[in-house]
Predict the structure.
Amino acid sequence: MKKHDFEARREALLKDIREVMDDVEELYRDGVEAGSEEGGKARTKLEEKLAAAKERLSRFEEEAGERLRHHAERAREKYEQFEEAAQERLKEGKERFAEFEADAGERLKRGAKHADEVVHEKPYYAMGFAALAGLVVGVLLNRR
């Protein structure tokens, strides 16, 4: 049921209810003024319109309930799909992070091993770089 159909049915139902209310007023006036024969006709007409309005209201409620259940089911399905996709992406993210962590750890170990080899091969260069680094840090700290 589209929104336009829903609105049209609602308007038709409200129109029926208004007509029933108008007929009730007419029945009351006719019953007070005229007598039982015209009142009986008006009452019969009113009962027919009331029955038709009740039937329309009942169908309207059923369709609205079905529509609500349909949309709730669709929302539930969309949520489940979203949840599955989010869990899959989280799993992929964890796997990528684990790969990155392993790769970074391996690179760090290789870098440390290479630095250790350089220090063992050329210890005087290493002492010179260490002294130079100490001198730079000392100069920077003394400026403050």
Observations:
- The two ends are 77 Å apart (CA to CA).
- DSSP finds three helices and no strands in the chain.
- The helical segments are 3-33, 36-121, 123-143.
- The chain has a mean pLDDT of 82.
